[in-house]
Amino acid sequence: MSSLFSKALIYLGLVDEDQPHGNTEHSSGGPGPVDSSQPQRRVIEAPAGVEGRRVDPPSAPRPQPLDGGSGQVRPILPVEAPTSIVIVEEFGDAKVLADRVRDRTPVVLDMRETESDLVRRVVDFSSGLIYALDGTMRRVGTGLVLVLPPRVSLSRDEKRRLASAGVYELDDVD
User: Fold this and answer.
1) Of 101, 109, 143, 156, most Cβ neighbours within 10 A?
2) Considering its fold, how many domains does the chain have in total?
């Protein structure tokens, strides 16, 4: 019976399937018990300097540039989108946050009236969400957290609008 290691070597193409993979003799030096259900195999040693066969992976075609063949990399510019304000009252509001971030909408979490245990749970959830999506999250005031999806920024006008709504308290509004 083939061992798992032998099967793995065959699967990876490191040895031929018909090549034996082990020694048919036990450690005592003599032949082991004969199992009539298994075909007998002879051990054939490879000549000196010859190792197992090597299989090179097939070469994949290189993808063609989408810009008509110029091959230049164009930067992705940040998107400026209107911001949603979510007043956190229960943990279900974290799903609302995730849906908005997935739709590439910035979100301000208003947790000024939220109990501290729920604040910790929502901030932990938000941190994991933003880490997974490569976005950003920062405090913009007491009990206020701005959650930005990847490659999304706030314009000055949006910061002013949020400040006039009372949910953006940083000095960089102007």
Assistant:
1) 109
2) 2
Q: What's the rounded Cα separation, in Å, for the pair 140 and 109?
A: 10
Asked if residue 89 and residue 44 are part of one domain, the reply reads: no
CA separation for the pair 19, 43 (Å, rounded): 8
Q: Taking the complete model, does pTM exceed 0.70, yes or no? A: no
Element containing residue 124 per DSSP (H, E): helix 116-133
CA separation, residue 113 to residues 89, 104, 116, 125, 146 (Å): 8, 26, 9, 18, 16
Among candidate residues 137, 136, 143, 138, the one with its CA nearest the CA of residue 166: 143
The answer to the question of residue 70 being in a domain is no
pLDDT digits (tens, 9 = 90+) for 118-169: 899 999 999 999 999 889 898 888 888 999 988 888 888 888 888 888 888 8
Please check whether residue 69 lies inside any domain of the structure: no
Q: What is the CATH number of the domain that holds 109?
A: 3.30.110.150
Confidence check: pLDDT of 59 > 60: yes
